[in-house]
């Protein structure tokens, strides 16, 4: 049985989203940058204490490559780099807000 064109497209979109947001820390990184206005590597590292530096760097690079984040290097000594949401990333905030609201309502005992 062949999949309908709609089913193929639907799966393609969900598969793409899953690939873009795969990674243990990506949603949490986006949450801290968007909701808590945290933009520096060290600040993110202190908020997500379980993440190691290489994982944080990798996840930030992937979020940047997928268009969620903009990385600005100020070319200063000591190095200063800030991450901000792109317009694409900002468009995802309502999804994060809904996920947080859903979690608050349904995952209270965890």
Secondary structure layout plus pairing:
Layout: H1 5-21, H2 26-35, H3 41-47, H4 53-65, E1 69-73, E2 81-85, H5 87-91, H6 93-106
Antiparallel strand pairs: 1-2
- For the record, what CATH class applies? Mainly Alpha
Broad structural category = mainly alpha
Cα shape: globular
Task: For the largest sheet, list the strands in their spatial order.
Answer: 1-2
Q: Could you tell me the number of beta strands?
A: 2
Write up what this structure looks like:
- By secondary structure, the protein is mostly helical.
- It has one domain (23-106): Arc Repressor Mutant, subunit A, CATH 1.10.10.
- The chain is 60% helix and 9% strand.
- It has six helices and two strands, in the order H-H-H-H-E-E-H-H.
- It has a two-stranded antiparallel sheet.
- The longest helix has 17 residues, at 5-21.
- The mean pLDDT is 90.
Give the structure's gist in a few sentences:
With 110 residues, this protein is mainly alpha-helical. The chain has helices at residues 5-21, 26-35, 41-47, 53-65, 87-91, 93-106, and strands at residues 69-73, 81-85.
Task: Give the tags.
single chain, 110 residues, mainly alpha, Arc Repressor Mutant, subunit A, two-stranded antiparallel sheet, 6 helices, 2 strands, 9% strand, globular
């Amino acid at each position: 049985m062949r999949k309908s064109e709609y089913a193929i497209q639907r799966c393609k979109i969900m598969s793409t989203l899953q690939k873009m947001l795969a990674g243990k820390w990506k949603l949490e990184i986006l949450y801290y940058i968007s909701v808590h206005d945290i933009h520096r590597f060290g600040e993110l590292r202190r908020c997500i204490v379980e993440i190691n530096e290489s994982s944080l760097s990798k996840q930030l690079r992937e979020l940047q490559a997928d268009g969620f984040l903009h990385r600005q290097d100020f070319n200063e000594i000591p190095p200063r780099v800030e991450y901000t949401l792109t317009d694409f990333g900002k468009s995802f905030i309502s999804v994060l807000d809904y996920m947080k609201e859903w979690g608050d309502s349904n995952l209270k005992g965890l």
